[in-house]
Amino acid sequence: MWSRLKYSVYIYIYIYTPQTKPSHLLSAHSLQEFSLLFSMQLCALLTVLGLLVTGSWAQGLMPTVGLPPCDSPEAEAAALAAQDFLNAQHTHGYKYVLNQIDEIKIVSRPLQADTYHLELDFLETTCHVLDPTPVSLCPVRQKINTAVEADCDFVLANTTQGLSVVAFKCKTETESEDKCLGCPQLVPLNDTDGLQLIETSLDYFNKNNTLNTKFALLEIGRMGSQIVSGGHRYFAEYAIIGTNCTSQDDDICIPQNHNVAIHGLCLAEGSADGVDCKIFAPTQASNATVQVQQLLHAHTFGPQHNPAIHGLKHHKLTALHDPSASGLLSAESNELAEVVAAPKDAPVVKREVAAPEVPAVDATESEKAPLPSGPILFAPICPGKKKHF
Questions:
Q1: For the chain: N or C, fewer Cβ within 10 A?
Q2: Mean pLDDT across the chain
């Protein structure tokens, strides 16, 4: 005869009970067989239950993955936190602004902070990193002037204190208009004619500025040329820093400390007198949310001057440290010396994750709205919309 036991885990266990005579007629041998069989079945039952309990416990510790829409407020908040962190770490060149959220996934683990994994596209702006202008107000460099795009992978932790970057890496590439005859073209940062334009235009600015300060070259941001009727016309963008000399001094001048010095960004076009410099007041880490190693260098023209201190590429992001030990990032965005890891005391960006907005619907209007006929087309949740190009 079979007896069936049903457990709450929805697994049925069958225990075989043999047809027997009354207990007073059973021999000692039969009782021993029955006891052994029952013990074996009980052990099997306990083993199955143990595996079920262990599996349920392990399943509770497994991470869950959420895939919110790339244009959701939650994704936007995480992407802007990544943007702020990127610009804080980027200590030379130009600021970057968010262009598109390619992908986002949120990994949740019991008793741990949620982890945000994002793939983001940024575009270079015309604001230097020392420019205090908020990045949201900085113009994006257009393709006609050779735009720069950064593809980045970010990992952020969402703690009770807010979103903070755990690790990130980026690669950059230029974009220009196709078949653009006569458009400006970038030249290497050690181009002889371009360097001469920088030297003569900076000398002109030092002799004619009203700040009574002599400036030294801080770094070369861009250098290019354009074919015009008279031949090649050069242009250059370069950052300057105030020295301990006045504009009338000709002695050896030493650049001031970055925290107290006056900085500026100059655009020189064509000739020495065609220079325009935007001066920034002394500000301590105007665009930073965390102290970072200063990678800026300043040399006046002379034996110490080396215009290639940041290499001959116009669009390299700051190289910091290799976070390969973190194991949080894939190899999709590898670019030599551009993989970085956030320091252990990574800054907490005070950006709260916004809750999804549910628009209010008038009941009378909803009743009048006709039901759609035919198939319903759902918009893709990722990638998100491009903000620029």
A1: N
A2: 77
